[in-house]
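Batch queue: ligand-bound targets. Current item pairs a single chain with pyridoxal-5'-phosphate. No template structures supplied; prediction is de novo from sequence plus SMILES. Inputs echoed for audit trail.
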Amino acid sequence: MRVPFVDLKVQYNSIKPEIDAAIQSVIEKTAFIGGQFVNAFETAFAEKCGTKHCISCANGTDAIYIILKAMNIGFGDEVITVANSWISTSETITQAGAKPVFVDIEPDYFHIDPKRIEEKISKKTKAIIPVHLYGQPARMDEIKRICEKYKLILIEDCAQAHLSEFNGKKAGTFGLAGSFSFYPGKNLGAYGDAGAIITNDDGLAMRARMYANHGALKKHHHEIEGINSRMDGIQAAILNVKLKHLDKWNLARHENALKYNVLLSGVSKVKTPRIRQNSSHIFHLYVIRTEDRDGLAHYLKSKQIDTGIHYPTALPFMPAYQYLGHKPADFPVAYEYQNEILSLPMYPELHDDEINHVVNSIKEFYE
Ligand SMILES: *Cc1c(COP(=O)(O)O)cnc(C)c1O
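Prediction returned. Tokens below.
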């Protein structure tokens, strides 16, 4: 039995008539860029997240960059973020002109460790970007308290955490703004690139919209120079269809994760993911930790099971950040975990027999 890492085709087949009709109507109305489908998605997504504004853009990387630029964060500033993430989180800080300052991850949860943030705060620190990695929110109560104490801007990278919650509050609503990616493989995925920003702040919403649209709110009236970062109508129409199914899909992922957790609980060599108290985990990724990770991945491959590593090298140890001069001892948890983490197949439509095949193969490997 082959078990792919994700299967976007099976999801498409389950909603094919709705998707095909949505794409067709965009073409009929030639609403290719901006327009009614994009407006409708922005309204629906803001409502779903419980925020006043949603500003769509071209992708999740731009979403972070636009927030930073709209907040005038740049040269001479420092922005604190987490050692284990996708590079978008830190490269956008550099793109904006500021310096990324990394913090190690919390044992077991893979998120920015609140206990290690304060030692990284300097006079230059302007903002903190926690990442709700794998679909579970970071420790938002502690992080928010630190931001308030030091008057820092809180920006949440929610690219992997659409609609997940901490203490009953949606990811992306704890600080100034949340950034989202709708890359096809994300829990809410377009059929191409797309992204968005959510915020309750009128000023930020206005500036972000302006910056993403060449610095103009009115056509041919450029208050500033900006960039061209927009969602296209086809992606918006697809996202509008998929948003209606998102709660159900997130729940299905969660149920699949609980099945893995139960079935793997007897395998002493495997540490299954922990779910934070008072928070929901939407399992964008199901990540275990284990010794001989590479051996296990290789064995699973031989059993036609695809796996992934998110991420094989923590950001501070990437060649791109060699100039910062970091050593493994600076981020001991991220350094240890990068060799232990393995992402197992995870998507809403994963079947019990597929989960069983993955688990049985893992058991075989360790026997
Ligand atoms: C996917 C992702 C992004 C970037 O999203 P794109 O839409 O691919 O630009 C940013 N941060 C994290 C944590 C991500 O997983």
